[in-house]
Every structure is written in structure tokens, then in C-alpha cells.
Specification:
The complex is a heterodimer of chains A (115) and B (114).
Chain A: E1 4-7, E2 10-13, E3 19-25, E4 31-37, E5 44-51, E6 54-57, E7 65-66, E8 76-78, E9 87-94, E10 105-106, E11 110-114
Parallel strand pairs in A: 2-11
Antiparallel strand pairs in A: 1-3, 3-8, 4-5, 4-9, 5-6, 7-8, 9-10, 9-11
Chain B: E1 4-7, E2 10-14, E3 19-25, E4 30-38, E5 45-51, E6 56-59, E7 62-67, E8 72-77, E9 86-96, E10 99-104, E11 108-113
Parallel strand pairs in B: 2-11
Antiparallel strand pairs in B: 1-3, 3-8, 4-5, 4-9, 6-7, 7-8, 9-10, 9-11
Classes of the chains: A mainly beta (115), B mainly beta (114).
Chain lengths: 115, 114
């Protein structure tokens, strides 16, 4: 089954404790992206990756890191989480970004709480 | 500034009734517009996509319209069902710096009551 998976689905942590949220897709997609979703706001892009070893900042990259060493995986790293990073996080992938029909396939989401 | 605004923020309708959700955008240059459905606690799922030359697209009981001149889109839901209760997100793609980029609306939260 074609899908985007994220782990963990729920995470409660404390300020300053490094964490990683994993994202994996099995559709051989080139483009992957991380978003955060907060009440009353639209999905905001954190980082994206055009292909292996190619990543770039989105609209809200502060406090986050990513890596793309393999095509299928795109982990999101919070080196020193803070309470303002409490949010619902989505990973998404698509065939590419140059095509007109660039449908994004979203993962199930990770609800992160930073105390 | 590239923006996507949706209205209403939230909507309650009775099962079986129709409703229309609005999306206005100021994104340029426009590439395409997509409507997503997001069930509570789940990731968004694409409903329809329209390019500049398309002004209507249907997916079952969902019909999206696009007026590229006025930069407005609507999503019409016919004969609503309880399972239509969800957030509906309008996403506009524009071309910038050699790539297509996405702007998300804040969404309309729809509740269908029996």
C-alpha cells in the first residue's frame, strides 16, 4: 500500500531534550516536506527536500533540522525543543515539484507536546 | 503578499443539506488550486485539483469551481453526509525560484449534524 508513515504518532517531552520524528514514504517520491499545523492557522512548511541530499528552509524553519540521506526517509530533528514547538506535525511527499499535478500525500501526523 | 483566505471559518449544517465553502487567493503566478479534506487527527487527502484553464471539477458529491480572473474558488458539497464532517483546506500552488510552492488556507471546519 502506497503511504507515508510517521513515528511516533504522539510524543510528550520536556524542554531541551533532543528528539527525532521519523518520516518514510514507499512511493519513490522525490519531494518530501514537513509541516506544522496550529489552531486557526494553515499548514506551515518547516523544511522541504527536492531529492537526496537537497534540503531547504520553508516558512518556519527556526528550531528544526532535517536530513535526506535516502530517498524514502526524511526525519525531522528538534535539537532543543521548546514549548512553542508544541504542535501537530505532518510529513508529506509528492512525485516532484515541477509537475502541474503535484499532489502531496500526507502522513497521519505526529502530535508533539513540549512541557 | 501571497495569501489564501477561506470562509467561513466554521459551518454547521444538517445531514442531507448542501453547502458551499469559499477560497480567495492573491497568489501569483498561479499554477493550480487543490482542495483537501482533513478528518480530525488525520492527514489531509486531496479532493480536486484545477489548473488555470479549468473552471469546474467534480469528485462524487464534491464540486469545485475556479474563477482565475477574480482569484476565487468554491467547494460545493451536495447532499451532505455525517462523514463529510471535517476540515476543508484550499491550497494554491505558484511558481517561484524555479519550483512550484504551496500556500495553504487556514481551512473551513464543517460539522454535519443528523
Amino acid at each position: 500500500e502506497a503511504q507515508v508513515t510517521q513515528n511516533p504518532r504522539y510524543l510528550i517531552t520536556v524542554t531541551g531534550k533532543k528528539l527525532t520524528v521519523t518520516c518514510s514514504q514507499n512511493m519513490n517520491h522525490e519531494y518530501m516536506s514537513w509541516y506544522r499545523q496550529d489552531p486557526g492557522l494553515g499548514l506551515r512548511q518547516i523544511y522541504y527536500s527536492m531529492n537526496v541530499e537537497v534540503t531547504d528552509k520553508g516558512d518556519v524553519p527556526e528550531g528544526y533540522k532535517v536530513s535526506r540521506k535516502e530517498k524514502r526517509n526524511f526525519p525531522l530533528i528538534l535539537e532543543s525543543p521548546s514549548p512553542n514547538q508544541t504542535s501537530l506535525y505532518f510529513c508529506a511527499s509528492s512525485l516532484g515539484v515541477g509537475a502541474t499535478y503535484n499532489e502531496q500525500f500526507f502522513g497521519p501526523g505526529t502530535r508533539l507536546t513540549v512541557l | 503578499k501571497n495569501q489564501v483566505e477561506q470562509s467561513p471559518q466554521s459551518l454547521i449544517i444538517l445531514e442531507g443539506k448542501n453547502c458551499t465553502l469559499q477560497c480567495n487567493y492573491t497568489v501569483s503566478p498561479f499554477s493550480n488550486l487543490r482542495w483537501y479534506k482533513q478528518d480530525t487527527g488525520r492527514g489531509p487527502v486531496s479532493l480536486t485539483i484545477m489548473t488555470f484553464s479549468e473552471n469546474t471539477k467534480s469528485n462524487g458529491r464534491y464540486t469545485a469551481t475556479l474563477d482565475a480572473d477574480t482569484k476565487q474558488s468554491s467547494l460545493h458539497i451536495t447532499a451532505s453526509q455525517l462523514s463529510d464532517s471535517a476540515s476543508y483546506i484550499c491550497v494554491v500552488t505558484f511558481f517561484s525560484g524555479g519550483y512550484n510552492k504551496l500556500i495553504f488556507g487556514a481551512g473551513t471546519r464543517l460539522a454535519v449534524h443528523p
